[in-house]
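just leaving the lab so this will be short. what follows is a protein written twice so to speak, once as letters and once as structure tokens for the fold. can you read through it and tell me how you think this chain folds. thanks a lot i owe you, the record is right below.

___
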Amino acid sequence: MPTSSSLYSGMLRARPRHRFAKIFIAIIAVVIIGSALYSALDNGRVMVRRERVSISNLPPALEGFTILQVSDLSGTRFGPLQKTIRQTVGNLTYNVVCITGDSIGSAGDPAPFWELIGAFDPSKPVYFIRGDADPAYDPENPNDPYEGAMKLGARWLDATSSMVVKNQTIWLTPEGQLIENTPADALAAYRAEISNLRSRAHASSDYKAIAIAERNAAALEREIAARASISADDLHIAVMHKPLEEARAELINAWSASGDIFYRSIDAFIAGHLAGGQWRLPWLGALYVPDKGFLPEGVEGKILVSGWQQVISAGLGSSSDTPFPKFRLFNTPELTLITFTRDLDV
């Protein structure tokens, strides 16, 4: 039978362990609550990432040419009428805005996207592309997000398009046309499809399909015309949603090596999609990205892919591709300001 003294000494040993467990649980609770409060505040902020891309043969007149890249809004509002974004971009200098997809969000409400367009300097051109999580184009929908965006003055980048700055031409190629090595063949296929649809059209779905095919054919016509005009001395940027990966980069390298001026003239790629990993760990980076695994590298910022320069924006909203709850952790929403320079030391 234990003596009273042995019982007392056992209690003394138990108390420190019990106290340590309480302290440990309290620390964990403080960390969780602190992280939640920080994330709630941080998800409503917008920072600016600045990247410089060196192009050795950049025309001197284009020194300092700057793209404001906006990616992965995902239907998020940063204050009424995107007030936070409006205030942030009001202090920036840029030549053109490129919205690189996943703008609408799973709720399908186009209003935050339209409000985003209104946040930019109206004197600067605004281009947008669709992302993989954006809804399909619907010509019969009076609230189609892309038609609404174009009514607000934005330009749907569905084919290679040009802009002129200081008498120098800049070309922007959308991801959807970048992999189309034979646009003339694709155009012939669309024309055949349109003819076939017209010959048997009797339901609204047929007429909708015709309208979509006609838009795609028109884009290919503009693509063919643009490719006939591109010069190797022009600045040529590929505008992507999903980042360029090794397999596609090697294919573009092969087409470039074959002498195709369209591919040889590409100077850089810009992309989004990955939301910077969405959940990030301090000092370690992205926690997990589908198809890239745990603690992946190259999910944001400036990287090289098979010799091609690429800038990946961590974007503004949350990705639906990750297994995490839809908020950003230690990953402040960002706009990306990309400046082109002849300076090789960047």
In short: The chain has one domain: 43-341. The CA atoms of residues 34 and 236 lie 45 Å apart. The two ends are 78 Å apart (CA to CA). The chain has a mean pLDDT of 89.
